[in-house]
Amino acid sequence: MTAVRPAIIGRMFKEAEPNPERDLAMMRRALAAAEEAAERGEVPVGAVVARGEEVLAVRTNEREASQDPTAHAELLAIREAAARAGSWRLAGCTLYATLEPCPMCAGAAHAARISRLVYAAPDPKAGYAGTLHDLPSDARLNHTFATEAGLLRDEAAELLREFFKSRRKRTR
Q1: What is the pLDDT of residue 113?
Q2: Calpha distance 108→31 (Å, rounded)
Q3: In contact, 122 and 131? CB cutoff 8 Å
Q4: If you count DSSP H runs as helices and E runs as strands, how many of each does the chain have, helices first?
Q5: Sign, CA torsion 32/55/154/162
Q6: Active site residue: 42, 62, 74, 100, which one?
C-alpha cells in the first residue's frame, strides 16, 4: 500500500477552500448547464465538479432523455469527475449545484468524499443538505463536508419557477 504524502493531502483540501471569484464562476457554469437542460425539456438543474480551477465535469439532469430516475445532474457530474480523476475519491473537490441535492445526490457526494458542496437554491421538497436533513454535516457518518447555500439563489430559483410555470401551461 502506498502512503499519501501530507503535502498532497494538504493541497487537495486547499483546492476545496472557498474562493468567491472561483465559486461564482463555477456556479455560473452550473446555471448555464441548467438553462441547456430546460431547453431540452429536462428539469433545469446543473452541476459542476471542480478541483481548484480545474473543471472535472459539467452535467445536467438527463432523466427524461435517458428515462433513468437516477440521472440527476449531481450524480452524473460525480460519476464523470471520478472517471476523469481516475479515482472514486474526490477529496479536494467541490460540487456546485443549482439546486440543493436530494438524498441520493447528497449520498453520492458523501460516498465520493467530496470536500465541499456549494448550491444555489434550497429544495423544500427533497433537499438533503440543510432543508429536510443535513447529510453533509451529519457527524454519525464517516465523512462530513462543508456546505454553502445561496450562491446565485435568485437566478436558479427563477429558472426553476419559469420552467415549471411553462410546463403547467402546456398541460392545460
Answers
A1: 98
A2: 21
A3: yes
A4: 6, 5
A5: positive
A6: 74
- In angstroms, the CA 85 to CA 145 distance is 19
The x, y and z cell numbers of residue 61, run together, are: 439532469
**Is 74 an active-site residue?**
yes
For the chain of 172 residues, list the mean pLDDT of each consecutive stretch of 10. 42 78 98 98 98 97 98 98 98 98 98 98 98 97 97 98 90 66
Q: Which of 138, 96, 134, 136 shows the shortest CA–CA distance to 113? A: 136
Longest Cα–Cα distance of the chain, Å, equals: 62
- Beta carbons within 8 Å of 96's beta carbon, 6+ residues apart: 23, 26, 27, 29, 30, 47, 48, 49, 50, 118, 119, 151
Residue 109, CA distances (Å) to 73, 90, 103, 128 in order: 12, 9, 10, 11
Name the amino acid, one letter, at 142.
Answer: N
Please give the grid coordinates belonging to residue 104: 441520493
CA distance 105 to 9: 25
The arrangement of strands across the sheet holding 46-51 comes to: 54-60, 46-51, 94-99, 116-121, 146-149
